[in-house]
UniProtKB/TrEMBL annotation:
Residues 16-211 form the HDOD domain. PROSITE patterns: HDOD. Keywords: Hydrolase. One of its GO terms (molecular function) is hydrolase activity. It comes from the Bacteria. Signal peptide: none annotated. SUPFAM superfamilies: HD-domain/PDEase-like (SSF109604). Pfam families: HDOD (PF08668). CDD domains: HDc. This is HD family phosphohydrolase. It comes from Muiribacterium halophilum.
Length: 286
């Protein structure tokens, strides 16, 4: 399939309301400048399952609060508006990952995605990036969302891409370009734009395999996702379509001022961090 055919198919995908309605509402609140904590609380609280699961994440070992947080309003005070918004989004999007068949196990992609999300947190910590890193976390969770879209809507071509990647021992994004004319990073970028997720997210995700081409204003965050992805691939956390070790892009290391030794140190902490993030991984088990 050539690029124009892929684009024609994608245009159709954009017409499909793929984002769950509750997630769309969370986004609406999040994207509006006038939204308050009360608005966010109202949207989340309207959905009992979303409330329960969001609170479970708030109380997970990942955040390590000494006492139990029982209300969304309380979570917003403690964790902040953005953090709770992103947790609610994580809960809403994880259902896309809850499917396994003989060709592809999306649950392994979820594990990979949670791995990348927590690794972005470790990188941010290493770099002493001030403020909240919630956007980097959700970018980690969503960075391979294009794969889900392919699996769902361009299924035959996706299966063919998986085969090509395996046979030629090349990264999935290269195989996709051969088969589909574009890769899951570009597809992810398009879908996030059509879901109206914050602009930076789609920019970051669009170049997660090509940090050298990242937008100037998202160079750092694209490099963080790229390196987090690299670490998770080295550590074989989950599966995102291939088992090839990605090429080391010096640009990404330079953009962050990280050395190879730093990467080793971060990689060492990932297992411990993933253990703490068990509740995130288990989101799709029930
Ligand atoms: Fe990817
Ligand atoms: Fe990935």
């Amino acid at each position: 399939m050539g690029l124009s055919e892929t684009l024609a198919k994608l245009r159709k995908i954009e017409e499909i309301p793929t984002l769950p309605s509750v997630a769309a509402k969370v986004l609406e609140v999040a994207n509006s400048e006038n939204s308050t904590a009360t608005d966010l609380n109202r949207v989340i609280s309207q959905d009992a399952a979303l409330t329960t699961k969001t609170l479970k994440l708030v109380n997970s070992a990942y955040y390590g609060f000494p006492r139990t947080v029982t209300k969304i309003t309380e979570a917003i005070v403690i964790l902040g508006f953005n953090a709770v918004k992103n947790l609610a989004l994580s809960v809403s999007v994880c259902e896309f990952f809850n499917k396994a068949d003989d060709n592809f196990d999306r649950r392994k992609l979820w594990l990979h995605s949670v791995g990348v999300a927590v690794t972005t947190g470790l990188i941010a910590k290493k770099l002493n990036i001030p403020g909240d890193n919630e956007e980097a976390f959700i970018a980690g969770l969503l960075h391979d969302i294009g794969i889900i879209i392919e699996d769902q809507f361009l299924h035959d071509e996706f299966i063919e891409s998986l085969k090509v990647a395996k046979e030629k021992d090349i990264p999935i994004e290269h195989a996709e370009k051969e088969v589909l004319g574009m890769d899951h990073a570009s597809i992810g970028k398009k879908i996030l734009q059509s879901w109206k997720l914050p602009g930076n997210l789609s920019k970051i995700i669009g170049f997660h395999h090509e940090p050298q081409y990242a937008y100037a204003d998202t160079k750092r965050d694209t490099a963080i996702i790229y390196i987090a992805d690299l670490i998770c691939k080295l550590k074989k956390i989950g599966f995102d379509g291939d088992t090839v070790i990605p090429k080391l892009r010096v640009e990404a290391f330079k953009a962050l001022g990280l050395k190879k030794e730093d990467i080793k140190e971060i990689a060492k902490d990932v297992d411990e961090e993933l253990k703490k993030a068990e509740d995130f991984i288990n989101l799709i088990e029930n």
